[in-house]
Amino acid sequence: MKFTNFRIIRLRRKDLEELKEAGQKKDLEVVGMLYADEDVSPELVRETISSTRIYGGILGKSEVRAALLDVSTI
Questions:
Q1: Neighbours of 64 (CB within 10 A)
Q2: Global confidence as pTM
Q3: Which of 27, 28, 29, 31 could bridge across to 53 with cysteines, CB 3.0–4.6 Å?
Q4: 3/16 Cα distance (integer angstroms)
Q5: Strand 7-11 and strand 49-59: pairing?
Q6: For the chain, how far is it from start to end, CA to CA, in angstroms?
Q7: Chain-centre distance of CA 66, in angstroms?
Q8: Do residues 59 and 34 make contact, with C-beta atoms less than 8 angstroms apart?
Q9: What is the model's pLDDT at position 6?
Q10: 55 burial type by CB count under 10 A (0-12 exposed, 13-18 middle, 19+ buried)
Q11: Measured between alpha carbons, how far is 74 from 28 in angstroms, rounded to an integer?
């Protein structure tokens, strides 16, 4: 039996800034929807997200969507 979990992931500037301050980067794997808040910048995405696999949609500013796709592993 196989289960698929559809999720909505929200990228908040505060969370990404905490990652940056801690010197950490995260990998994102999303089946569903990735939503980036309006105050998330492409630079912050590049500084805090090491790779992405997104099976679904991305909502956010076009520059942020492009930054997420730039770090995409697929």
A1: 22
A2: 0.84
A3: 29
A4: 29
A5: unpaired
A6: 26
A7: 11
A8: yes
A9: 83
A10: exposed
A11: 12
DSSP code for 39: T
In which residue are the tokens 């980067």 written?
Answer: 25
Residue 49 near residue 72 (C-beta atoms within 8 A): no
Structure letter (DSSP) for residue 3: -
Q: Which two tokens stand for residue 27?
A: 């990998």
Query: In the 8-state DSSP scheme, what is residue 60?
Result: S
CB 28 within 8 A of CB 53: yes
- Give the three-class secondary structure for 54: strand
If you search the block for the tokens 């492409």, which residue do you land on?
Answer: 42
